[in-house]
Amino acid sequence: MNVKTCFDYDKTKSVIEKYPKFSYLLNQLVIHTQYYTTIEVIEGIKSMILQWSQNRKSIPLFINAGRKKKSSSYWLYSTIKDLLPEHDLFLYGKTFDPDTEIEILFIDDWMLSGVNAASNFEDVLHRVLSLGDVKEKDDMSQEIYHYKRNKITYTIISFISTNDSNEIINELFLDYRINGKIISLHNIPSFHSILVKLEQEMTDDRQKITKELCQELTQEFAPDSMLLGYPVLLEYKIANQFGCLELFYEQCYNPITPPYF
């Protein structure tokens, strides 16, 4: 068994031995898990902020730091705000001059499934910019209420992203007819894509990776989502079941208290 230093060796060994049917899959999850410290996250965000700020248009900037101060996005904003160009925080219910270009910036440590980032984006577009509820894509080209979508630039800076999250967010940018971009430092492959590659390269008599076996694995360790997720851990955080095999990680890894608590 190959256990990275971020895992508790004895706990990890015990869990894998408890599930012999999944031993090969769980060992591969441990081997392929990428791990990042709090300092790496902060320094990575800082480097992206500096590069982005040098190339952005000089238009009014608003920071979408979310609704909760005890969140990763608000913590990162508080940590690097002195590096940002002149800006304001969004106030819900605020209105804007429809002829003025603005940029909205959202900063976070990771986007894995993309669900949280998408929800946050739509919350801002609907509630803050008063675009109203658009139920069908055919309506997206209409001017809704007082704000012109083509005047909005929405930028996401995330330490980690995935192909899945990028696809979801980029589709939203297209649906809402706004200018959007994603900047990230690390792209994490899905555990499913890793297993597919391992299966294709398998030449010995190791355990075969079947669809049924993967479904059983997710039923055991991510029953709420039934997704294999992404093999990544932060020093202070484990993703939920839409982002990883949470119930496995929780038994083998002890994150520090998040800096935003």
Model description:
The chain is of the alpha/beta class. It folds into two domains: 9-32 and 191-252, no CATH class; 38-187, Rossmann fold. The protein is 39% helix and 15% strand. It contains nine helices and seven strands; from the N terminus they run H-H-E-H-E-H-E-E-H-E-H-E-H-H-E-H. The strands form two sheets. A five-stranded parallel β-sheet has the order 3-2-4-5-6, sandwiched between helices. Strands 1-7 form a two-stranded parallel ribbon. Helix 5 (115-128) links the parallel strand 4 (102-110) and strand 5. Helix 5 (115-128) runs parallel beside helix 6. The longest helix is centred in the N-terminal third of the chain and has 18 residues, at 38-55. The chain is elongated and about 65 Å long. It starts with 8 loop residues before the first helix and ends in a 9-residue tail after the last helix. 31% of the residues are buried.
